[in-house]
Write a structure and sequence with these properties.
Helix content is 40%, strand content 20%.
Length: 477
């Protein structure tokens, strides 16, 4: 049996999170709205209308190009891509072909084995979205709400070598899009859509095999599953002496199967020519430099810095940089706290993220600010509250908006350090447990933890554990 290598290129359509569409004033987002209620003569393609470019689309597209290490073209041009399909009301799509917003680019993937995969970007350009079709009761229903939504189409070179690498590419891309604030990148809502071009070839060969294109995959797991199924089919066909035909395939997530849609189009089929109703897009040198300067520290760079600067594990750093606002929250808390970064990391990963999930918020939406979390950790360090109380303070601060110290005082949540009261309660515990006292004095010193537990029970968990232990050992001698 021959050894085969899988070769994959991905085409992603990224919905930019602008308020309005690319060429008209209609809302860009129509999620959960009734079909055909968010359209106008421009995006519906009525005769005689003219497009007006949304400048914010240009800047967000250029921002993404810069984040992908691509060159921002100071001059880009829109073109017409001609094809006839029911969800394209004009009979053509306004896109960029000859002079796109970005040139080149790449992304370095972090692989499971610790290595990296350098994935080059072949194309990165702006365009408008088409509508949606839906099959229902034997009819093809059309919804034009999505027509004119601004997109960046980004196409990789055939540099990916497994379905897992394709999934990792999408995972890192989704993280990057949210990080730089150009897209919500929610695949379920169609903000990030992916088509996969898949071919196989003999291992060691430089010649690419015939590719097929997989469409309509709406989750990263589906991309992984669909690629594996198609690669297996192609390998089995080649081993049987059959030729691979260039088809477009439709992925059915419900059945987990692929079906042929049509033969794959070529660029010549689209008859591109310059869009006559739009002028070239010009970015000044100052605007390009402004976009480059405004780019934040990228996720992989921040992750590496968290490991080196804060001495965190790669696992902790990976979680803390999964979202930009979470990593910002961590750094601000560390700065305010002034103690060990690992302590802050533990509180965020174990308790703050649980609070975020229960509240349905991200870090930037919490009332509990980094200064509040730092204050709560300091209360624990100073012995003013125990860990259990501190965990409840997170939710109390979040729901009330009050400061942690204020809540501790008003609700009497602080640890009791009063010498007389502690001694009284400890003497009561010892008097009630003569057998355990005798066992301790006979050498079973591990019982000190049991005694402490009884003291805490008597005092509702508010006894100062350090001072309580000191008094216990004094009285047990």
């Amino acid at each position: 049996m021959n050894d085969y290598e899988i070769v994959i290129g991905l085409e992603t359509h990224i919905e930019l999170n602008t308020k309005t569409k690319i060429f008209c004033a209609c809302k860009a987002s129509s999620w959960n709205e009734a079909p055909n209620t968010n359209i106008c003569p421009v995006c519906a393609g009525l005769p005689g209308v003219l497009p007006v470019l949304n400048r914010e689309v240009v800047f967000k597209g250029a921002r993404l190009a810069a984040a992908m290490h691509a060159e921002i073209n100071p001059r880009s041009v829109f073109d017409r891509k001609n094809y006839f399909y029911p969800d394209l009301p004009k009979g053509y799509q306004i896109t960029q072909f000859y002079e796109p917003i970005g040139k080149g680019g790449y992304v370095d993937l972090e692989l499971a084995d610790g290595g990296t995969r350098h994935v080059r970007i072949n194309r990165l350009h702006l365009e408008e979205d088409a509508g949606k079709t839906k099959l229902e009761a034997g009819m093809r229903l059309l919804d034009y709400n999505r027509c004119g939504v601004p997109l960046v189409e980004m196409v990789t070179e055939p540099d990916l070598r497994s379905a897992d690498e394709a999934a990792q590419y999408l995972t890192q891309l989704r993280q990057l899009l949210r990080w730089i604030g150009v897209s919500e990148a929610d695949m379920e809502k169609g903000h990030l859509r992916c088509d996969a071009n898949v071919s196989v070839r003999l291992a060691g060969s430089e010649k690419l095999g015939t590719k097929t294109e997989i469409k309509n995959v709406n989750s990263i797991d589906s991309v992984r599953q669909a690629i594996n199924i198609e690669a297996k089919r192609q390998i089995e066909a080649l081993e049987a002496g059959k030729k691979i035909e260039s088809f477009t395939l439709d992925w059915d997530a419900d059945t987990g199967k692929l079906r042929k849609m049509r033969s794959k189009e070529t660029e010549a089929d689209y008859r591109y020519f310059g869009e006559p109703d739009l002028l070239p897009v010009i970015l000044t040198e100052a605007e390009v430099q402004g976009i480059l300067t405004a780019l934040p520290e990228m996720p992989l760079a921040r992750k590496a810095r968290f490991v080196s600067e804060y001495r965190l594990s790669a696992y902790d750093a990976d979680i803390l940089t999964s979202e930009r606002n979470l990593s910002d929250y961590f750094e601000e808390t560390v700065k305010t706290y002034g103690g060990e970064a690992k302590t802050v990391s533990n509180w965020i990963m174990n308790d703050l993220m649980r609070l975020m999930n229960s509240q349905g918020k991200d870090a930037s939406g919490l009332l509990l600010r980094p200064q509040d979390l730092a204050e709560i950790i300091k209360l624990v360090d100073a012995g003013k509250v125990n860990v259990a109380t501190a965990k409840t303070l997170l939710e109390k601060v979040e729901t009330s908006g009050k400061k942690a110290a204020e809540i501790v005082t008003s609700e009497g949540l602080g640890l009791v350090s009063d010498e007389g009261l502690l001694r009284q309660k400890i003497e009561e515990v010892l008097a009630e447990a003569p057998g355990e006292v005798a066992a301790f004095k006979a050498g079973k010193e591990s019982l000190v933890g049991w005694f402490l537990g009884q003291v805490m029970r008597k005092m509702g968990g508010k006894a100062d554990p350090k001072r309580s232990r000191e008094i216990l050992l004094e009285l047990l001698k």
